[in-house]
Amino acid sequence: MKSNDNKDRTSTVASARIGTGSWIILIVLVSLLVATAIVVYFGWTLAKGTDVPTSGYAAMVFGVIISLAIGFGLMALLFYSSRKGYDEPPVLIVPESDPDVPDKK
Fold it and tell me: Which residue ranges make up each domain of the chain?
């Protein structure tokens, strides 16, 4: 009797993990992956014999270097702001001589 109860609980947990919405998302993502693979295949085979000029390679290298520099710079700013405490939530600091704030006594 105890093994049946365990079996029912396992099947309930497994069915709760993968519902209809999860299956739909999985099917959509797999179909997008297949469509991308098809587009890449046709793009690769239809471009045979096409030469890329030197300026095209230079532009590609320039774009990669600029993209990496921006990425490294943004990550450096992220770590800098985190270490300096700029990411902390704001705290209201009320001066003691402020007449608008009632006394706490």
Answer: 19-70
